[in-house]
Amino acid sequence: MADTDWNLRQTFTFQGREVACDVMGQGEPLVLVHGTPWSSFNLRHLARRLADDFRVHLFDLLGYGQSDKSDNDVSLGVQNRLLAALIGFWGLESPFVVGHDFGGTTVLRAHLLDKVDFRKIALIDPVAISPWGSPLFRHVREHEAAFAGLPEYIHEAVVRAYVGSAAVSPLSEETLAGIVAPWTGAEGRAAFYRQMAQADSRYTDEVQDLYPSIERPVLILWGREDAWIPPEKGRLLNRMIPGSTLVELPGTGHLVIEEQPDALVREIKTFFLS
Fold it and tell me: I want to staple 114 with a disulfide (CB 3.0 to 4.6 A). Which of 11, 84, 179, 189 is the partner?
């Protein structure tokens, strides 16, 4: 399947909203959760490689990718409940789980607040410790309507510049196009700024004091050159979660899932299969 043909083949209805999802591969169940402003498209490398050993379940968060982008709640406060509902929909018991960025936060919230059990947890550059949020997030929160009304060509330039800053190496045009595509058009443009406007550190404040209570094995993977969330946050998270393992990947940034997917897959497989 070419990257340009990436398409989730199933839907799940959550609180009246359509969520795009898919399942691939055979083996023990594994759930992948993307972050922001990404989508399941950015998990394609991991999904395809992990499907050699696991039955991989993935989806687009509410407000992202191919899922519902209506003017509604797309905050971290709803995404953990969606994840819990999807695991029930798929009939999974204690699956392996991988979460990147906000996806890592969603995994932690589902585990700690919704009591969703995971066999092992892998977190990739998660937004796990307050404070967080870029100056752009704060600016959009104050001027969401103005940003949502930007001409399409200016909006696309904003998205491209923003996502490009997450990687150390320049992203390919095919990758950039795949990231930008869900955020185009009037609906996608509004959705892009909506998820920024609804970002709030209170959703990590609610759970970070609970990290020492995590009893499941946890692997923390971090791009050593992450300019969005510095590696120091990963080291702190490693100290907060008892028995967790931290692996820093040199020469890569926050978008390690695009920059070094093979290295991630090796670390994840070693951790899950040991």
Answer: 84
Per the structure block, which two tokens stand in for 17?
């909203």
Q: Which long-range contacts (CB under 8 A, 24 or more apart) does 236-240 make?
A: 236/129, 237/123, 237/126, 237/128, 237/129, 237/211, 240/129, 240/208, 240/211, 240/212
pTM: 0.96
* Vertex 22 angle, CA 197 and 60, to 5°: 5
Angle at 253 between CA 214 and CA 68, to 5 degrees: 70
Q: pLDDT digit string (tens) for 202-261?
A: 999 999 999 999 999 999 999 999 999 999 999 999 999 999 999 999 999 999 999 999
Asked if residues 82 and 109 have their Cβ atoms less than 8 Å apart, the reply is no
DSSP labels, 11-50: EEEETTEEEEEEEESSSEEEEEE--SS--GGGGHHHHHHH
